[in-house]
Write a structure and sequence with these properties.
The protein has 402 residues and is mainly α. 77% of the residues lie in helices and 0% in strands. It is globular. One of its GO terms (cellular component) is plasma membrane.
Protein backbone atom coordinates (compact mmCIF):
# COMPACT_ATOMS: atom_id res chain seq x y z
CA UNK A 1 0.00 0.00 0.00
CA UNK A 2 2.82 2.35 0.90
CA UNK A 3 4.57 1.50 -2.40
CA UNK A 4 1.42 2.34 -4.38
CA UNK A 5 1.10 5.68 -2.59
CA UNK A 6 4.78 6.46 -3.27
CA UNK A 7 4.38 5.56 -6.96
CA UNK A 8 1.28 7.74 -7.30
CA UNK A 9 3.08 10.64 -5.63
CA UNK A 10 6.08 10.22 -7.92
CA UNK A 11 3.81 10.00 -10.99
CA UNK A 12 1.96 13.18 -9.97
CA UNK A 13 5.25 14.98 -9.37
CA UNK A 14 6.55 13.96 -12.80
CA UNK A 15 3.30 15.02 -14.49
CA UNK A 16 3.39 18.39 -12.75
CA UNK A 17 7.04 18.85 -13.80
CA UNK A 18 6.19 18.12 -17.42
CA UNK A 19 3.31 20.60 -17.38
CA UNK A 20 5.56 23.18 -15.73
CA UNK A 21 8.17 22.71 -18.46
CA UNK A 22 5.46 23.03 -21.13
CA UNK A 23 4.06 26.21 -19.57
CA UNK A 24 7.43 27.93 -19.25
CA UNK A 25 8.61 26.86 -22.72
CA UNK A 26 5.38 28.07 -24.33
CA UNK A 27 5.79 31.50 -22.77
CA UNK A 28 9.34 31.62 -24.12
CA UNK A 29 8.07 30.49 -27.51
CA UNK A 30 5.65 33.41 -27.58
CA UNK A 31 8.12 36.08 -26.41
CA UNK A 32 11.64 35.07 -27.53
CA UNK A 33 12.41 37.38 -30.45
CA UNK A 34 15.87 38.05 -31.82
CA UNK A 35 17.43 34.77 -32.96
CA UNK A 36 19.52 32.03 -31.29
CA UNK A 37 21.86 34.26 -29.27
CA UNK A 38 18.94 36.22 -27.85
CA UNK A 39 17.10 32.96 -27.11
CA UNK A 40 20.03 31.73 -25.02
CA UNK A 41 19.86 34.97 -23.04
CA UNK A 42 16.13 34.47 -22.40
CA UNK A 43 16.78 30.87 -21.36
CA UNK A 44 19.54 31.88 -18.96
CA UNK A 45 17.33 34.46 -17.31
CA UNK A 46 14.36 32.08 -17.00
CA UNK A 47 15.97 28.73 -16.19
CA UNK A 48 19.12 29.76 -14.30
CA UNK A 49 18.28 33.04 -12.54
CA UNK A 50 14.52 32.94 -12.05
CA UNK A 51 13.71 29.25 -11.61
CA UNK A 52 17.18 27.92 -10.66
CA UNK A 53 16.59 24.63 -12.47
CA UNK A 54 20.36 24.49 -13.12
CA UNK A 55 23.45 26.51 -12.22
CA UNK A 56 25.59 28.79 -14.38
CA UNK A 57 28.31 26.23 -15.07
CA UNK A 58 25.88 23.52 -16.08
CA UNK A 59 24.04 25.95 -18.35
CA UNK A 60 27.31 27.06 -19.93
CA UNK A 61 28.18 23.41 -20.55
CA UNK A 62 24.81 22.79 -22.22
CA UNK A 63 25.32 25.81 -24.47
CA UNK A 64 28.81 24.56 -25.40
CA UNK A 65 27.41 21.12 -26.25
CA UNK A 66 24.63 22.51 -28.45
CA UNK A 67 27.01 24.83 -30.28
CA UNK A 68 29.25 21.84 -30.91
CA UNK A 69 26.41 19.80 -32.44
CA UNK A 70 24.72 20.46 -35.78
CA UNK A 71 21.19 21.78 -35.59
CA UNK A 72 19.35 24.67 -33.87
CA UNK A 73 21.40 25.48 -30.76
CA UNK A 74 18.69 27.29 -28.79
CA UNK A 75 16.11 24.55 -29.38
CA UNK A 76 18.64 21.90 -28.38
CA UNK A 77 19.43 23.75 -25.15
CA UNK A 78 15.69 23.85 -24.40
CA UNK A 79 15.34 20.12 -25.14
CA UNK A 80 18.28 19.32 -22.86
CA UNK A 81 16.90 21.45 -20.01
CA UNK A 82 13.50 19.77 -20.37
CA UNK A 83 15.24 16.38 -20.28
CA UNK A 84 17.14 17.25 -17.12
CA UNK A 85 14.02 18.63 -15.45
CA UNK A 86 11.40 15.99 -16.35
CA UNK A 87 12.92 13.22 -18.45
CA UNK A 88 11.92 12.38 -22.02
CA UNK A 89 8.43 13.87 -21.67
CA UNK A 90 10.01 17.06 -20.33
CA UNK A 91 12.26 17.25 -23.40
CA UNK A 92 9.24 16.80 -25.67
CA UNK A 93 7.20 19.38 -23.73
CA UNK A 94 10.04 21.91 -23.91
CA UNK A 95 10.32 21.49 -27.68
CA UNK A 96 6.56 21.70 -28.29
CA UNK A 97 6.15 24.83 -26.16
CA UNK A 98 9.07 26.68 -27.72
CA UNK A 99 8.35 25.59 -31.31
CA UNK A 100 4.56 25.52 -31.72
CA UNK A 101 3.76 29.29 -31.70
CA UNK A 102 6.09 30.23 -34.55
CA UNK A 103 5.35 27.02 -36.48
CA UNK A 104 1.62 27.80 -36.32
CA UNK A 105 2.12 31.40 -37.46
CA UNK A 106 4.30 30.39 -40.42
CA UNK A 107 1.83 27.67 -41.44
CA UNK A 108 -0.98 30.24 -41.48
CA UNK A 109 1.24 32.63 -43.44
CA UNK A 110 1.83 29.95 -46.09
CA UNK A 111 -1.93 29.43 -46.43
CA UNK A 112 -2.38 33.20 -46.75
CA UNK A 113 -0.06 33.24 -49.77
CA UNK A 114 -1.73 30.33 -51.57
CA UNK A 115 -2.80 31.30 -55.07
CA UNK A 116 -1.05 34.65 -54.80
CA UNK A 117 1.70 35.70 -57.22
CA UNK A 118 4.33 36.63 -54.69
CA UNK A 119 6.33 38.84 -57.05
CA UNK A 120 3.32 41.08 -57.76
CA UNK A 121 2.66 42.18 -54.16
CA UNK A 122 4.66 45.20 -52.98
CA UNK A 123 4.66 44.25 -49.30
CA UNK A 124 5.80 40.71 -50.10
CA UNK A 125 8.62 42.13 -52.22
CA UNK A 126 9.58 44.18 -49.17
CA UNK A 127 9.87 40.92 -47.24
CA UNK A 128 12.13 39.52 -49.95
CA UNK A 129 14.38 42.58 -49.84
CA UNK A 130 14.74 42.54 -46.05
CA UNK A 131 16.22 39.04 -46.29
CA UNK A 132 19.30 40.68 -47.87
CA UNK A 133 19.82 42.83 -44.78
CA UNK A 134 19.11 39.98 -42.34
CA UNK A 135 21.54 37.57 -44.01
CA UNK A 136 24.19 40.30 -44.39
CA UNK A 137 23.93 41.02 -40.65
CA UNK A 138 24.25 37.29 -39.90
CA UNK A 139 27.33 36.96 -42.14
CA UNK A 140 28.97 39.99 -40.50
CA UNK A 141 28.34 38.79 -36.96
CA UNK A 142 29.35 35.19 -37.64
CA UNK A 143 32.52 36.24 -39.50
CA UNK A 144 33.65 38.31 -36.52
CA UNK A 145 33.07 35.41 -34.12
CA UNK A 146 33.87 32.33 -36.21
CA UNK A 147 36.48 33.57 -38.72
CA UNK A 148 38.41 36.30 -36.86
CA UNK A 149 41.95 35.29 -37.91
CA UNK A 150 43.76 34.64 -41.20
CA UNK A 151 43.50 30.82 -41.30
CA UNK A 152 39.77 30.73 -40.54
CA UNK A 153 39.00 33.74 -42.77
CA UNK A 154 40.82 31.94 -45.59
CA UNK A 155 38.73 28.81 -45.01
CA UNK A 156 35.59 30.97 -45.11
CA UNK A 157 36.56 32.64 -48.40
CA UNK A 158 37.47 29.34 -50.06
CA UNK A 159 34.22 27.79 -48.82
CA UNK A 160 32.25 30.70 -50.30
CA UNK A 161 33.98 30.34 -53.66
CA UNK A 162 33.20 26.63 -53.84
CA UNK A 163 29.64 27.00 -52.50
CA UNK A 164 28.65 29.70 -54.98
CA UNK A 165 29.80 27.58 -57.95
CA UNK A 166 28.65 24.17 -56.62
CA UNK A 167 25.16 24.88 -55.34
CA UNK A 168 24.00 21.48 -54.18
CA UNK A 169 23.25 19.97 -50.78
CA UNK A 170 26.04 17.43 -51.31
CA UNK A 171 28.49 20.20 -52.15
CA UNK A 172 27.74 22.03 -48.92
CA UNK A 173 28.15 18.87 -46.84
CA UNK A 174 31.49 18.08 -48.45
CA UNK A 175 32.69 21.65 -47.89
CA UNK A 176 32.02 21.29 -44.15
CA UNK A 177 33.68 17.86 -43.97
CA UNK A 178 36.83 19.11 -45.72
CA UNK A 179 36.90 22.22 -43.51
CA UNK A 180 36.64 20.01 -40.43
CA UNK A 181 39.69 18.01 -41.52
CA UNK A 182 41.61 21.20 -42.29
CA UNK A 183 40.76 22.53 -38.85
CA UNK A 184 41.79 19.23 -37.26
CA UNK A 185 45.20 19.41 -38.97
CA UNK A 186 46.21 23.09 -39.03
CA UNK A 187 44.22 25.13 -36.53
CA UNK A 188 45.69 25.60 -33.01
CA UNK A 189 44.61 23.05 -30.40
CA UNK A 190 43.28 24.78 -27.30
CA UNK A 191 42.62 23.08 -24.00
CA UNK A 192 39.12 23.43 -22.57
CA UNK A 193 38.64 24.12 -18.85
CA UNK A 194 36.91 21.59 -16.63
CA UNK A 195 33.27 22.12 -15.75
CA UNK A 196 30.53 20.32 -13.88
CA UNK A 197 29.30 17.10 -15.47
CA UNK A 198 25.72 17.17 -16.68
CA UNK A 199 23.53 14.72 -14.78
CA UNK A 200 20.83 13.06 -16.84
CA UNK A 201 18.66 9.99 -16.35
CA UNK A 202 19.81 8.29 -19.55
CA UNK A 203 22.09 5.27 -19.76
CA UNK A 204 25.08 5.17 -22.07
CA UNK A 205 23.51 2.19 -23.84
CA UNK A 206 20.41 4.28 -24.63
CA UNK A 207 22.64 7.15 -25.72
CA UNK A 208 24.55 4.88 -28.13
CA UNK A 209 21.25 3.60 -29.53
CA UNK A 210 20.15 7.20 -30.13
CA UNK A 211 23.41 8.04 -31.92
CA UNK A 212 23.12 4.86 -33.97
CA UNK A 213 19.58 5.75 -35.03
CA UNK A 214 20.77 9.23 -36.01
CA UNK A 215 23.35 7.81 -38.43
CA UNK A 216 21.09 5.02 -39.69
CA UNK A 217 18.43 7.54 -40.71
CA UNK A 218 21.05 9.81 -42.26
CA UNK A 219 22.27 6.95 -44.48
CA UNK A 220 19.01 5.05 -45.02
CA UNK A 221 16.65 7.90 -45.96
CA UNK A 222 18.52 8.87 -49.18
CA UNK A 223 18.42 5.20 -50.24
CA UNK A 224 14.69 4.99 -49.51
CA UNK A 225 14.22 8.15 -51.54
CA UNK A 226 15.88 6.54 -54.57
CA UNK A 227 13.65 3.46 -54.53
CA UNK A 228 10.39 5.19 -53.54
CA UNK A 229 8.38 7.73 -55.50
CA UNK A 230 6.43 8.87 -52.41
CA UNK A 231 6.76 12.61 -51.83
CA UNK A 232 6.69 12.22 -48.04
CA UNK A 233 9.86 10.11 -48.19
CA UNK A 234 11.65 12.78 -50.23
CA UNK A 235 10.44 15.51 -47.87
CA UNK A 236 11.45 13.61 -44.74
CA UNK A 237 14.89 12.94 -46.20
CA UNK A 238 15.43 16.59 -47.21
CA UNK A 239 14.38 18.11 -43.90
CA UNK A 240 15.99 15.46 -41.69
CA UNK A 241 19.30 15.77 -43.57
CA UNK A 242 19.18 19.56 -43.31
CA UNK A 243 18.57 19.44 -39.56
CA UNK A 244 21.39 16.92 -39.20
CA UNK A 245 24.05 18.86 -41.10
CA UNK A 246 23.49 22.54 -40.31
CA UNK A 247 26.43 23.66 -38.18
CA UNK A 248 25.93 27.11 -36.68
CA UNK A 249 22.13 26.94 -36.60
CA UNK A 250 19.92 29.94 -37.29
CA UNK A 251 20.47 31.57 -40.67
CA UNK A 252 22.80 28.81 -41.87
CA UNK A 253 19.70 26.72 -42.57
CA UNK A 254 18.87 29.04 -45.48
CA UNK A 255 21.30 27.73 -48.16
CA UNK A 256 20.80 24.07 -47.26
CA UNK A 257 17.01 24.27 -47.36
CA UNK A 258 17.06 26.34 -50.54
CA UNK A 259 19.18 23.65 -52.22
CA UNK A 260 16.62 21.03 -51.18
CA UNK A 261 13.27 22.63 -52.01
CA UNK A 262 13.76 25.03 -54.94
CA UNK A 263 15.71 22.83 -57.42
CA UNK A 264 13.18 20.03 -56.77
CA UNK A 265 10.42 22.29 -58.07
CA UNK A 266 8.52 22.28 -54.78
CA UNK A 267 8.36 26.10 -54.80
CA UNK A 268 9.82 29.20 -56.44
CA UNK A 269 12.72 31.25 -55.07
CA UNK A 270 10.28 34.10 -54.34
CA UNK A 271 8.03 31.83 -52.29
CA UNK A 272 11.06 30.51 -50.42
CA UNK A 273 12.47 33.94 -49.57
CA UNK A 274 9.06 35.35 -48.59
CA UNK A 275 8.74 32.62 -45.95
CA UNK A 276 12.32 33.14 -44.80
CA UNK A 277 11.66 36.83 -44.25
CA UNK A 278 8.41 36.10 -42.41
CA UNK A 279 10.33 33.76 -40.11
CA UNK A 280 12.32 36.79 -38.91
CA UNK A 281 9.13 38.43 -37.64
CA UNK A 282 8.02 35.66 -35.29
CA UNK A 283 9.43 34.56 -31.93
CA UNK A 284 10.94 31.14 -31.38
CA UNK A 285 13.44 29.11 -33.43
CA UNK A 286 14.19 30.00 -37.04
CA UNK A 287 14.03 26.30 -37.91
CA UNK A 288 10.22 26.55 -37.79
CA UNK A 289 10.72 27.99 -41.28
CA UNK A 290 10.31 24.31 -42.15
CA UNK A 291 6.61 24.56 -41.21
CA UNK A 292 6.12 27.25 -43.86
CA UNK A 293 7.98 25.21 -46.49
CA UNK A 294 6.05 22.04 -45.64
CA UNK A 295 2.75 23.91 -45.96
CA UNK A 296 3.69 25.28 -49.39
CA UNK A 297 4.63 21.76 -50.52
CA UNK A 298 1.73 19.77 -49.09
CA UNK A 299 -0.55 21.77 -46.78
CA UNK A 300 -0.73 21.24 -43.02
CA UNK A 301 0.33 17.55 -43.21
CA UNK A 302 3.48 18.78 -44.96
CA UNK A 303 4.01 21.34 -42.18
CA UNK A 304 3.86 18.61 -39.52
CA UNK A 305 6.17 16.30 -41.46
CA UNK A 306 8.76 18.98 -42.26
CA UNK A 307 8.82 20.36 -38.70
CA UNK A 308 9.16 16.93 -37.09
CA UNK A 309 11.83 15.85 -39.58
CA UNK A 310 14.05 18.93 -39.22
CA UNK A 311 14.03 18.73 -35.40
CA UNK A 312 14.25 14.92 -35.04
CA UNK A 313 18.04 14.88 -35.32
CA UNK A 314 18.24 17.42 -32.46
CA UNK A 315 16.52 14.97 -30.11
CA UNK A 316 18.70 12.05 -31.23
CA UNK A 317 21.93 14.04 -30.91
CA UNK A 318 21.07 15.53 -27.51
CA UNK A 319 20.10 12.13 -26.10
CA UNK A 320 23.15 10.54 -27.70
CA UNK A 321 25.82 12.99 -26.57
CA UNK A 322 24.78 14.28 -23.14
CA UNK A 323 26.24 11.30 -21.26
CA UNK A 324 29.57 11.61 -23.15
CA UNK A 325 29.89 15.39 -23.41
CA UNK A 326 32.26 15.78 -20.46
CA UNK A 327 34.85 13.68 -22.29
CA UNK A 328 34.22 15.04 -25.80
CA UNK A 329 34.61 18.71 -24.90
CA UNK A 330 38.06 18.09 -23.36
CA UNK A 331 39.49 16.85 -26.69
CA UNK A 332 41.39 19.76 -28.28
CA UNK A 333 41.32 18.19 -31.76
CA UNK A 334 37.52 18.12 -31.73
CA UNK A 335 37.51 21.81 -30.90
CA UNK A 336 39.93 22.53 -33.77
CA UNK A 337 37.80 20.55 -36.23
CA UNK A 338 34.71 22.42 -35.09
CA UNK A 339 36.52 25.74 -35.63
CA UNK A 340 37.21 24.74 -39.23
CA UNK A 341 33.59 23.72 -39.80
CA UNK A 342 32.30 26.97 -38.32
CA UNK A 343 34.59 28.99 -40.59
CA UNK A 344 33.23 27.10 -43.61
CA UNK A 345 29.69 27.82 -42.42
CA UNK A 346 30.46 31.54 -42.68
CA UNK A 347 31.57 31.02 -46.29
CA UNK A 348 28.47 29.00 -47.19
CA UNK A 349 26.22 31.71 -45.79
CA UNK A 350 28.23 34.38 -47.65
CA UNK A 351 27.62 32.47 -50.89
CA UNK A 352 23.89 32.33 -50.09
CA UNK A 353 23.89 36.09 -49.54
CA UNK A 354 24.91 36.46 -53.18
CA UNK A 355 22.74 33.68 -54.64
CA UNK A 356 19.81 33.28 -54.10
CA UNK A 357 19.27 36.18 -51.67
CA UNK A 358 20.80 39.08 -53.65
CA UNK A 359 20.32 37.83 -57.21
CA UNK A 360 16.63 36.99 -56.68
CA UNK A 361 15.62 40.20 -54.86
CA UNK A 362 17.72 43.23 -55.82
CA UNK A 363 16.63 44.34 -59.31
CA UNK A 364 16.20 48.12 -59.10
CA UNK A 365 17.72 51.11 -57.28
CA UNK A 366 14.62 51.13 -55.05
CA UNK A 367 15.32 47.55 -54.00
CA UNK A 368 18.92 48.45 -53.17
CA UNK A 369 17.81 51.53 -51.21
CA UNK A 370 15.27 49.53 -49.19
CA UNK A 371 17.89 46.87 -48.43
CA UNK A 372 20.30 49.58 -47.23
CA UNK A 373 17.62 51.09 -44.99
CA UNK A 374 16.88 47.67 -43.48
CA UNK A 375 20.59 46.99 -42.96
CA UNK A 376 21.05 50.34 -41.25
CA UNK A 377 18.08 49.73 -38.96
CA UNK A 378 19.57 46.37 -37.95
CA UNK A 379 23.26 47.26 -37.66
CA UNK A 380 23.29 50.94 -36.68
CA UNK A 381 19.98 51.53 -34.92
CA UNK A 382 19.92 47.99 -33.43
CA UNK A 383 16.19 47.50 -33.97
CA UNK A 384 14.79 43.99 -33.42
CA UNK A 385 14.56 41.93 -36.65
CA UNK A 386 10.77 41.65 -36.45
CA UNK A 387 10.44 45.46 -36.37
CA UNK A 388 12.71 45.77 -39.41
CA UNK A 389 10.68 43.11 -41.26
CA UNK A 390 7.46 45.03 -40.64
CA UNK A 391 9.07 48.31 -41.75
CA UNK A 392 10.41 46.67 -44.92
CA UNK A 393 7.01 45.21 -45.78
CA UNK A 394 5.51 48.72 -45.47
CA UNK A 395 8.40 50.16 -47.48
CA UNK A 396 7.90 47.58 -50.21
CA UNK A 397 4.21 48.46 -50.44
CA UNK A 398 5.04 52.17 -50.69
CA UNK A 399 7.84 51.77 -53.26
CA UNK A 400 5.61 49.60 -55.45
CA UNK A 401 3.49 52.67 -56.25
CA UNK A 402 6.40 54.64 -57.69
Amino acid sequence: MADETTNETQSLKTRNSVLEVLRVATRLGLTSFGGPIAHLGYFREEYVHRRKWLDEKTYADLVALCQFLPGPASSQVGIAIGMIRAGFLGALASWIGFTFPSALFLTLFAYLLQGVKVEELGWIHGLLVVSVAVVAQAVWGMARNLAPDRPRATIAILAAMVAVTWQTALGQVLIMIVAGFIGWWILPKRSVPESLSIRISLSRKAALFSLGLFFVLLLLLPLMRKISSAQWVAMFDSFYRTGSLVFGGGHVVLPLLQAEVVPNGWMSSDQFLAGYAAAQAVPGPLFTFAAYLGTVINGWPGALLATEAIFLSSFLLIFGTLPFWGWIRRQPKFQAALSGINAAVVGILLAALYDPVWTKTIHTPSDFSLALIAFGLLMIWKLPPWVVVVCSAIGGAVFSHF
